Amino acid sequence: xxxxxxxxxGTFDGVHLxxxxxxxxxxxxxxxxxxxxxxxAFARPPRFQLQESPDRFLLLPESVKSSILARTVxxxxxxxxxxxxxxPPEGFAETILAEQLRAKSVVVGPSFRFGAGRAGEPEIxxxxxxxxxxxxxxxxxxxxxxDPVNSTRIRFLLASGxxxxxxxxxxxxxxxxxxxxxxxxxxxxxxxxxxxxxxxxHVLLPAHGVYVAYAFLGPPQEAAARPALFYVGTRPTVTSExxxxxxxxxxxxxxxxxxxxxxxxxxxxxHLRGDLALTSLADLQDQISRxxxxxRELLADFPxxxxxxxx
Length: 311
Prior knowledge:
Elements: E1 5-10, H1 17-33, E2 36-42, H2 46-49, H3 62-69, E3 75-79, H4 81-84, H5 89-100, E4 103-108, H6 122-132, E5 135-138, E6 143-144, E7 147-148, H7 151-159, H8 163-170, E8 175-181, H9 186-190, E9 195-199, E10 209-217, E11 226-233, E12 246-251, E13 263-274, H10 281-299
């Protein structure tokens, strides 16, 4: 491999279709020129890093995003926004791209900005590349329904519960990953046992309600898609507390074995209904029964995925 690299820079949150187009071009150039393929990835979108709010906003946990990126590139560099935030565009190009990464080519999208105050645009990057010895490739945006794919658009769709359209932008179903934690076993008493998931506190949750899903349990090499209902919400039927948000998985083919600490990867397929405040547990039991019937009907339109997304 020749000394030098092909680099792309960004947050890569969700590793959506737009990111995938850029990463494919990075890989192509790296293979052609025998250079290292590098993703210089910020943990969080810079505008969120400047906020102290703990609100959920990421589409993927950082470790999962890095794992997905590593399937395409040779190196994933965990970029520290606060170390580079004051660099002017020229300083970033010289210190990070030319000296640290030894970039021979930089691949970005048309909305890419860099340097303090987002002062650097692609044309500025191209001019700096001529000075510091790297070329710049601008990958056109990927369009879905006539609009560019981006993480902000996907966040809006998830917050609205439109997991189907979000999947069209991601290139795969939206996913949530969590470890099984102990619950209060109300689902057990109703005859619909659930696995309670602890999801990364920075990962965006979809609109509250019930979703048709596939759940993957067990070691990655053995995990298979299992039809499921996924619930996210504050459980208004069973508690008056509105602050704690629960994420629960009910498997349609068999009860979860309550293996506390086991990781479950959930692929969200369709929004079945919103959250409901019912008058009794008996009403909730009846509603879950109807949800299960409806979910089985909808699952006919979703052939099971053959593999984990997070891996």
